[in-house]
Write a structure and sequence with these properties.
Rossmann fold; 2 domains; globular; 21% strand; Dihydrodipicolinate Reductase, domain 2
Length: 315
């Protein structure tokens, strides 16, 4: 049986990638609006209430407005914005979060798709906090770099427009200097932290790809924690997962560097544990495509669960 999908915000960066990933699937049919109709609230409302699955690829306020327009109780929603990521009544759309999460997503009427920085940070921190290795009260810091596509159409233009782009000649840019990035509440909540992590995001002059780093002073953690303990906790948590992979310590130890574009075009998230046992230090790094597992790929994975398709379909 075919499921009907309406992507509200289909012409945005994430919407376009979701539509491309869904391709010409025989198990889906699509509702769509032309440019003029998208401005017609009546027609948008018709689409929002006619689909089996609505995928929202909108700014936060517009996503909230769209949900308010849905009166048909049979319509199920995947929201790719950050509007509902810590909201009551919404299921967190990270199937690998823990036992039973994929089943919760499959049965949900409202699913909030994780942010790119957030799903990577949470994938590192949640198993460590839940396992008692990193205390919930620990002062966590996160350093991250993303491709400029994470900023949407305007940032893409700022980097790609050789004549008028604000960052056309900028190789690297740190931002979020007010230390209040919109993914921080999501990271705090879903990692199980008592206090907000200190997150320093940056953007590089490449279109897509991402590395998130969580440094850990092992000597500051209770219980004489080792690099191997960190790795084992992550490996045990993600054992058997298709899309989240913890790379072997020996493989990581042989690496001389990590490139942010290494997983572009995939729905995978790779975790590496780098360590210096003598100094009592470790850095856990997550590698991801910010438009893949960090956005459109994750939305397709959630869609597959919600309609009972093979989770790998289209990925």
């Amino acid at each position: 049986m075919s499921a009907t999908v309406f992507i509200d915000g289909e012409v945005g960066t994430t919407g376009l990638q979701i539509r491309e990933r869904l391709g010409n699937r025989a198990d889906l049919s699509f509702l769509s609006l032309d440019e003029i109709e998208r401005k017609d609230l009546g027609r948008r409302g018709d689409m929002l209430n006619s689909a089996d699955i609505v995928i929202l690829c909108l700014p936060d306020d517009a996503a909230r407005d769209a949900v308010a327009m849905i009166e048909n109780t049979d319509v199920r929603v995947i929201d790719a914005s950050s509007a509902h990521r810590v909201a009551t009544g919404w299921v967190y759309g990270m199937p690998e979060y823990g036992p039973g999460q994929a089943e919760l997503i499959a049965a949900a009427s409202r699913v909030t798709n994780p942010g790119c920085y957030a799903i990577t940070s949470v994938s590192i921190l949640h198993p460590l906090v839940a396992g008692g290795i990193v205390p919930a009260s620990h002062p966590v810091t996160i350093n991250a770099i993303s491709g400029y596509s994470g900023g949407g159409k305007q940032m893409i233009a700022d980097f790609e427009d050789a004549e008028n782009g604000a960052y056309a000649n900028t190789p690297f840019r740190v931002y979020g200097l007010g230390l209040a990035h919109k993914h921080v509440p999501e990271i705090k909540a879903w990692s199980g932290l008592d206090k907000s992590p200190l997150m320093v995001p940056s953007v590089g002059h490449f279109r897509q790809g991402m590395i998130v780093q969580v440094p850990l002073q092992l000597w500051s953690l209770p219980g004489n924690v080792s690099v191997g303990d960190i790795h084992a906790a992550l490996e045990n948590h993600y054992a058997g997962q298709r899309f989240v992979k913890v790379k072997p310590l020996a493989e990581t130890a042989d690496m001389s560097g990590l490139e942010p574009e290494g997983l572009n075009g995939t729905n995978e998230l790779h975790l590496h544990v780098f360590g210096n046992a003598e100094a009592g230090q470790a850095v856990v790094m997550g590698l991801i495509d910010n438009l893949g597992k960090g956005a459109s790929g994750q939305a397709v994975q959630n869609l597959n669960l919600m309609i009972g398709a093979d989770p790998d379909t289209g990925l």
